[in-house]
Amino acid sequence: MLIFKPKTNVELGGKFESDPSALGYIAYDEEDNICGFVAFHLNGYSMEIYEISVDDGDAETYEGLIRSALNYGGNRNVYIAYYSAGNAVSVAKTLGFEEKEDKLYGEIPFLLQGHCCKGC
User: Fold this and answer.
1) How far apart are alpha carbons 107 and 58 in whole angstroms?
2) Among 14, 41, 65, 93, which one has the highest count of C-beta atoms within 10 angstroms of its own C-beta?
């Protein structure tokens, strides 16, 4: 089982420490080892997921991190999410992100719905 814990820029560490607006989640495995992270910014009614990484490239871990970030934003009155991370684009599209210019975007209530509710 994986655990997704919210983190601030300082807790994310590395290049995020110098960005006070950076938020994210870190995924931990059963042995409490870090196995992935997602970083995002909130901006009023929108958010941008701009970096995501999973050690083993597991699509379900990517999905869990993306959903955690979307839920975090949704609980803070964010409505639109943009996805500009360079990897896991196929996972983001599976969740319902659509292409708009150079980024993917979607409405958080729709993105958080299960696959059965999206008419796939």
Assistant:
1) 24
2) 65
Indicate whether 117 pLDDT > 90. no
Global pTM?
A: 0.92
Residue 50: which of 29, 69, 27, 77 has the closest Cα?
69
Residue type, 85: A
pLDDT digits (tens, 9 = 90+) for 58-100: 999 999 999 999 999 999 999 999 999 999 999 999 999 999 8
Helix (H, G, I), strand (E, B) or coil at 82: strand
CA 106 to chain centre: 12
Taking alpha carbons only, the member of 5, 62, 63, 65 closest to residue 33 is 5
Cα-only R_g, the chain? 14
Query: What is the Cα–Cα distance from 108 to 55, expressed in whole angstroms?
Result: 26
